[in-house]
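We modelled the chain as a single entity of 734 amino acids. Its sequence is:
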Amino acid sequence: MEIEGVMDVVVFHNSDNGYTVGRLVTEDGDITVVGNALLIQEKENYRMDGELIYHPKYGEQFQFHKIEVIRPRERTAVIGYLSSGLLPNVGKKTAKRIVDCFGDETMDILEKTPQRLLEVEGIGKKRIQGIIEAFEEQKDLREFMLYSQEIGLSSNLAMRVFKKYGELAEAVIRENPYRLADDIRGIGFQRADKIALEMGFNRESNFRIVSGMKYVIHRAVADGHTYLPEEDVVEQSCQILGLPEEIIRQEMVSLAIDSTMYITKFEDRVCCYPIRLYQAENAVSAKLLQRVKKPIARAMAESIFENLEKELPHALEAKQKEAVEKSLNSGVLVITGGPGTGKTTTLKAIVHCMEELGLKVALAAPTGRAAKRMEEATKREAKTIHRLLQFEYIDEDGFENSRTVEEKIEADVIIVDEASMIDIVLMKDLLLSMEEDARLILVGDVDQLPSVGAGNVLRDIISSGKIPVVHLNKIFRQEETSMIIENAHLINEGKFPMLNQKGGDFFFLEQPSHENTAALVADLVKRRLPDHYGVDPFEDIQVLTPMRKGICGVEQLNQTLQRVLNPKSDKGELTWNDFIYRVDDKVMQIKNDYKLQWEGLSSIFESEGEGVFNGDMGRVYEIDEEENEVKVLYEEYRLVTYTKENLDLIQPAYATTIHKSQGSEFPIVVIPVVSGPPMLLTRNLIYTGITRAKDLVVLVGNPRVLAQMVSNNQIVKRYSSLDRLLKEQGGLYE
């Protein structure tokens, strides 16, 4: 039996054996397809040979034994092409009406007599003009789109390639397909390698080996490293390229002269950096030491300190006073401490003193949620660091642009909270944007997880011993009898937490398996916690998990929680990135976008504005299945419309990873504690997770795994050199 159609969604794909589950749109409707395909892409047109089978759990499926890409000529393929986003205002339903009207002549009519589109119901003169203009502009593109299908590129990736290279796109690929891995976001080394080898490229070609080594280094950067030792580069390159070590080593010179790489040696170790990270670490070291060497000598008047004491509910303890004094007499200062150690009080005291001295203070944090918390605590405006730097957009390759203006930040003092989240590139941008005599104060908890981006900034600064640091270690708020704070410190000391105390706020519910754990997490969020505490399951409870995969991973938990909190209804839904979004779903923005527009739905606030930030959580307000649009309501008044061009900016947020929760605070946190990869079962990870809770922590799972996490103080080694640079370049502060 043979079927043809457009691959709408790849639900599952195992890259090792090619096993695939997908949803194919055929002329007769949608059908689930299963089989083995080493390379398969969404929105691509396929012909499959196989037979219908019936799965006892998932129902009717088509099991294919043979699969091949077909060009957009037949009915379902033409529908897929027309609704791929290349033509404005043409979604799936409109595309189907066009093909229903013209059949096999559709493409010829679009090319030769496009005015006949007026014969299609729902297409008027105004709409047709945009379709005609877009189709006319695509003459060169259409030829490349056909070629791109031959080499296995999806429509979206082909568009990126064509935008980059224009009419030379095919020639560039034929000369060196590995350029795709360097130049095009979404086309990694492995896909470029498959294209190249199928084109007949030599496995030992210089292009292939250098591209493979760069892939290894950039993969390390994604894990937080700023460089990778040569021996690691060689070993991992041997594995992915399938070539002997001596051949790899012969090409190290070629890697060294690549304009995007930098290779240097220290302490008998050859280190391979992306050049932007090498430059960033050197710039950060130099700028920090400049500020240490040029402290701003301003004595704090007795009257200011007396006024300060009157403003605060409690007298400052010794370490807090030390932090205030050093902030006034240092060009740069780090204040670190765990939960409940008075960081917020100290921060407010510093702001008060600086303002009494007539200094302009700017408050910032790495994420939007962290900035909001800072603003609530200080009663003063706080911005994301990116907003403070006046970043305005994220380019098509996913990198936030350099500052959009040349002026320095207009502030005498810059205070940054949640400093453990700052990566090396962001720290470089911040330091380069400060006035020469401005002070920098970094506030953060060094025991939390490090930044998602490359570098180990806060930990390196502290361990260098070259920058003034105040460690706040006295625990306040004892009168609140918060077991969250007490247990956080116990865990940080390697001690097992106190659990399930009557009337407490820290509980552990033991479960025998991953399946039972996931089921109980869902019941806690849906029924038990709302019934007992009178809380909203969407607004007041956040599930945090150490991992992405597995029954208790973020991907499956989001589906599990959606089933119990927001089951299928007639309110509308849209499938995107393997998740079926529904009206009322809880979602999160996952990147800063300063130009993303919103409209206000409340007369109390602005009627419109720009900017949605990494970590912002909202609810799906409306879905347009025809146009692939999702409207999300943030803070009950900011309505943002996401189209197929930027839907990747959101993801479901019933559950999120502990890494993604950094800088946030939630009334109630529920964390599954189950077995998993050792690198995820660490003390600083569970410590970070429980310190996100304000009122209540509920852990669910295996207490032995919790004990393992508490005892595992092995912080995953990050290759970074900021601490070494600070030590080597020296400083006046000791």
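As a brief sanity check on the tokenised model: The CA atoms of residues 234 and 248 lie 6 Å apart. The radius of gyration is 28 Å.
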